[in-house]
Amino acid sequence: MAFNKVVLAGGSGYLGRIVLDHLLTIPTISQLTVLTQSQSVDFPSSPIVNVVSIPSYQDVAALTLALEGHDLLISTLSRVATEGADEALVSAAIKAGVRRYMPSEYSVDVLFPHAIAIAGTTVLAGKIAIAQRLQRLAEEGRIEYTTLVTGAFLDFWLENATPVIVPKSKIITLLDGGEKKMTGVTTSFIAKSIGAIIAMSPEAAKNKRLRIAEVEFTGKALLHTLEEVTESKWTVLERSTDEVFKDGLAAGERGDMRGFYLGNIIKINFDGEGAGYFEEGLQWADGIVERQTLKELAAKSISRVFAV
Ligand SMILES: NC(=O)c1ccc[n+]([C@@H]2O[C@H](COP(=O)([O-])OP(=O)(O)OC[C@H]3O[C@@H](n4cnc5c(N)ncnc54)[C@H](OP(=O)(O)O)[C@@H]3O)[C@@H](O)[C@H]2O)c1
């Protein structure tokens, strides 16, 4: 049985909007329900789209009603929203008889021992609990899951100011000497990967944590690419991932929780210990999902950064 009737939670968000637009291009989807708490978002109008207003992600009865008759629930809720909503969302999906759930993980491999050692009780605790709960529920035969383990969203990291890149000022920090290999994805690659999962036999991705990757690169290769696409020299700073991690801890002590989160996630994603580098992911959906080169995706991001 294919996934024809799909629900998307978080379709108004950064990743969700790209996923929603891609789902609308898949001819086998006959019904697309978008759950939202927002009153002000304009979703695309389409005969297959039904926008359902969710007053609270704690209301299992209302969620169950909204999920009835669907085969696949995809969450692209924000990290914070996911931690509050996931348990009720999955309970409702089970009650409604939804076959498959794709959680809003889209991160480092949160079940990788190094990730657990660094941030298992802090910034990754919520996503780890969700991943473990899903594995348990799948073993009990209550719901299936497919989790996309993506590592870094390169469009996010290339377009927003973080301790790694300040794109508008053309500043890049080479981490650990800039020679460690990294992998990453774009949000459009994730959306197309979800489409590929919908198109494949349901057994192929059943109860799998798929470590996916669009490109492999190093910090130095990224610097070279950014200088090439902007036709200008970038300011280069050098730091170790341990220093960035310590900065994050100091930020946390000052109450700067974004800084705390970034320090942790930069360390886990880019320190070369395997929680954010997925060599096998470079073969994922080869020939099915098109990959951009580092230069192509960097050029798109840079053009968005400097668009007036
Ligand atoms: N690996 C990476 O580099 C990377 C980068 C960015 C994000 N991510 C991950 O990608 C996933 C999606 O993130 P995103 O940045 O796309 O999320 P987002 O845009 O911040 O939020 C997605 C949607 O979640 C809902 N939402 C947000 N805050 C909420 C709250 N406090 N309470 C209830 N609902 C709320 C909203 O939907 P409605 O208003 O429609 O209900 C929103 O549009 C997350 O798991 C995130 O951790 C990964």
UniProtKB/TrEMBL annotation:
Keywords: NADP, Oxidoreductase. One of its GO terms (molecular function) is oxidoreductase activity. Residues 5-247 form the NmrA-like domain. The keyword Oxidoreductase applies. The keyword Transferase does not apply. PANTHER family: CIPA-LIKE, PUTATIVE (AFU_ORTHOLOGUE AFUA_1G12460)-RELATED, NMRA-LIKE FAMILY PROTEIN. This is NmrA-like domain-containing protein. The lineage of its organism: Eukaryota, Fungi, Dikarya, Ascomycota, Pezizomycotina.
